[in-house]
Give the backbone structure.
Amino acid sequence: AIDVLQSMKTGGSRIAVLGDMLELGPEEVDFHREIGEYLDPALTDLVFAYGPLAAKLAEAATEKFGPERVFAFTDKAELSSVLNSKCSQGYCAVQSLQGHAPGRGAAQPE
């Protein structure tokens, strides 16, 4: 899904909205950091992370994007409000990713 977002042609912003990937086992923090490192600041304008594990993704992404382009949330209403304000000035291509272990239930956000 990240590759789809990053390959989209749009006249607006490309925003990744990423939540916790659950049930990944003892390496879950490392997996979240890897996603943050994988995101390309030349192909993604903003990163929104939701949840305590996704916060680790945001930390890794901030190293490449800078703090002005990465946002971490624990409150869905706040995420929605900030996302709406970022998109209110024009068209946004938003890719929301919900992670889960194969064969398991979907993770946050709901």
Summary: The CA atoms of residues 14 and 44 lie 5 Å apart. The longest helix spans residues 54-65. The first strand starts at residue 13 and ends at 22. DSSP finds four helices and four strands in the chain.
